[in-house]
Batch of 3 targets.
Target 1
Amino acid sequence: MSGISNIDQLAAKREELFTALYKKAFPAVAKYVSRMGGSFDEAKDVFQDALVAYYEKVIVANTTLNNNTAYLVGISKNLWLKRYREDRQNIPLDNIDLSIGEEEGLSENRLMHFLEKAGKKCMDLLTGFYYDQLPLNEIATLFGFSGVRSATVQKYKCLEKVRETIKEKALTYDDFME
């Protein structure tokens, strides 16, 4: 009988530890994920994964950490960044609904303004890739890049220029609606 009570005591201590860690570290994780464009549910998922990593590191591997909260927040940030990067790379533009209705259309002039701010070469590259649907090897040849990888990197840099311009102006999706 004493074996069962020891197991119950260990489970109670583990639950108490996780509750305390949740109260200390989760608010910082939720704030970070929110700032990075994630939802509350995504913050909970990332934090749960971080708790598992913490448990494996501390309990199973019998490692001592000086600051449990900082460790959990750090793991959560890394997990979120990894997930964020993977998700951004896997979203095909075909799945984004850009239908334009009469009453609710993208402000083409405003969008064009931000695309033009990226420069003529970027505008031509993005037009070739997204509008003309040219393959990257053809874009690389057309623009004089050393290869497909260079064309991919340049396309990414052009998109980042547009994103940064929009971020500088603190614009949202609604700013592009007429």
Target 2
Amino acid sequence: MNVKVGEELPDLVKHPTTRQLVQYAGAQGDFYEIHYDQEYAHSVALPGVILHGLLKAAFLGQLVTDWLGDRGTLKTFEVSYRGVDVPAHPYRCRGRVTRVAGNEVELEVWGEDETGKRTTVGTATVGLPD
């Protein structure tokens, strides 16, 4: 795999739904009302129900593993949340190569709302075969 600094990963656009949030809550066990109860979300000054942070992290993890395929191994992955995202609006996952050191590649990854604001930012390190 020939990888160069500055190379961009193919965008991954997700279209989360409130139903998906309910399913994710059940699978993960996170039943905080801000993820499925519109009235409650509004009562705590949110625009409505919001995506789970870990679901956004999973989307970014999918971005990296889709790009990597079976050509290497995901070694590290971390994200930080900088804003809220809501269902029924696209969530665009993006990334780029920031460092190549032998078989180790560092990536910058981020999720954007429909205005292009980075609401989740992170990094990943992948190992490539010899």
Target 3
Amino acid sequence: MKNYKKPTIFSLSSAPGKAGVSVFRISGPSATKALKSLTRQKFFEPRRVTLKKIYNKNNELIDSCLLFFMQGPNSFTGEDCVELHVHGSVAVIEKLTSELYSLGLRQAEAGEFTRRAFENGKMDLTEAEGLADLIDAETEGQHKQAIKQMDGALRHLYEGWRENLLNALAQIEGEIDFPDEGDIPDNLSHKALSYLNLVLEGSEKVLKTADTGEAIRHGLDIVIIGSPNTGKSTILNALSKRDAAIVTPTAGTTRDIVSINMILTGIPVRLSDTAGIRDTSNEIEAEGIDRALKLSKKADILIHVIDLTEDNSDNNIKSQISDGDIVVYNKVDKYQKQTMLKRGISSNEIKISALKEKDIDDLRALIEKTILEKYTVGNEPTLTRVRHRNCVSEMFLSITRAASCLNKSPELAGDDIRSALYALEELAGASDIESVFDRIFSRFCVGK
């Protein structure tokens, strides 16, 4: 939806302050007019880099710069666009900014260039979100996921679903609109089921990986939990290779949550040490234990630490271990019994001495293995935001209802399919969800 009545916007797209080069971006109907005023020239060959001098209205030289002119709609925003690569002097930046204001241009708001690209059909909302994630990406995993989404992986997926839903709807409406026509086969709407099943299978598969996509984007929470004096703080310090948590022989030393940030398998991780779980009358320690239990329920990966030298003190911890949790039997160097440990609850078990570097390396390898098994993204598109999950879940429920009533009431099935199509429109940003747009684009940096 092109709208050339919009104001022409500009922004410093590079970091502010002194630099070798600073980049100004201009977009809108008056971009070419502004360029002519700055350079005192009348013609610019699109998509060609040129070296030009730029002047203010008083014909004073501002700078010599590299100039890029991109004529709409063949530009990032779909409008006439200009990029000026000037010397990164604070004085140059201030003079050029002042001149652009005097030419009637407006300072761009956060994300306004990308929003115009979306509104002009240069990208859908999922691709815009992928671009935002790429800008924010700090790890290899985040970069890989953002690149796929920005390149249209999720768009290609939902376009396939949309095509199947339209085919299903055509089958149903053929029976409803022409029930007495001789050339319309009986029970034509039943043929819609195959199209619906294709979408159900595909969306169910994607919904199962939604946790993975969101975790890669935000990072993983890995929580260490156990009784007092089992070595939790020592393990945290050893894994982070710094003294993040206080370690003493006194039970209950850790009373609040101590967290450190790491990168494991290309994914950001927040590793947290927690208060030792036990019955206590100490009000402060009890609060720390309550926080530990609450955090453990939200953890993406739980690490249970059990003291091998204590036979009975960890029974409550053992009862809380779930399949897929990591179980660390610590203090193997002080353990007198030589029998092998067998529990059969979790396959992710390891015996270590937290004081030995090799054992810590083995534990780190086990944590990385668990991350790779639970949070590795393959070549398939993933849902990376709660918004994505909600839209696809709504579509899935609508199609499930449509499939269940297809034989009894094709009319109702058709309505459910239309609801599913609307959910896809919300995913793409094609429906009127202005408040969602505001939230998404406001998180971009100014100049993008």
